[in-house]
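Quarterly update from the structural biology core.
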Amino acid sequence: MDSSELAPAVLGAEATKFSYDARHAAVVQVQPGSIVRFQTLDARCGRMKSPEDVLSSAPDWSREFPEVDPATGPAGIIGAEPGDTLKITVQRIDLGALGFVIVKTDMGIVRGLVATPVAKMVHVSGDRIQFGNGIALPIRPMIGIIGTAPAGVPVASAYVHRCGGNMDNNRIRVGASVYLPVEAPLGLLYVGDVHAAMGDGEVCGLAVEIPGSVLVRIDLLRRRHIEYPMVEDEEVFATTGIGDTFYEAAEIAVSQMIRRLSASLQISAPEAYMLVSCYGDLRINQACNCLPIRLGVRVEVPRQILGLEPWSSL
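Predicted structure, tokenized:
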């Protein structure tokens, strides 16, 4: 029987971690091709029950691993070794019924809008978000955290790093495939920070933070090394970059795309750079404007226009 035909392995929210750490023991170990369900907590681990909890539920950012943006995991993939790549295909995202959004004094693009943090509870009913004030909007479920454990020093779950983590990449929705570097034995995959809706940039620092359940298929690409995560769906292929500044992050993402297009289309690096400039869209994933949270970007190119096959098949 194929691994994908078995009942999915389940990682419950009790498997929450606040770091990506190669020393973590795998909660479950699965074969490549397996379906796995990750049950996830909201960004404040269920501490936000009402707007009045906005201060009491706040994490202590002075800690090495603040208790915020929890990641469920890790799942170990049998046979995964450093130098491999995991392909994670998102099959389903289920949302809880109650989420929240917060505007803070010290996070986001616009500062000085509030003197103290302001929170709003948001209800999800069916495929609609009840924002209040008579405003009802469609849900746009996406996954904020998806990543593997980096070699070396652990990274807090609230942060993005070279193996993924809190990327807040709006392309990571149902139907997308995420490629992640493997730096630790078994890969060690984490998932979390589901949003009912998030705009590119997550400009106030939060989106509709909500508990959820994520169903993914995990495939292993042996000896297919990548430096940073990549994402593809039916429409686009995207490379990613992170940095303390926009230009640092953008240079990484664009450089990754130049290499991928040059190899896939068998053209020179300058020609690939030309195509990125003509057909690539440089987008901001997350711009909380609050170091040490680093800025993340992605470069998207249209797969069909450029005739790009799925990266895993190349």
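Residues 230-307 form a domain with the Endonuclease I-creI fold (CATH 3.10.28.20).
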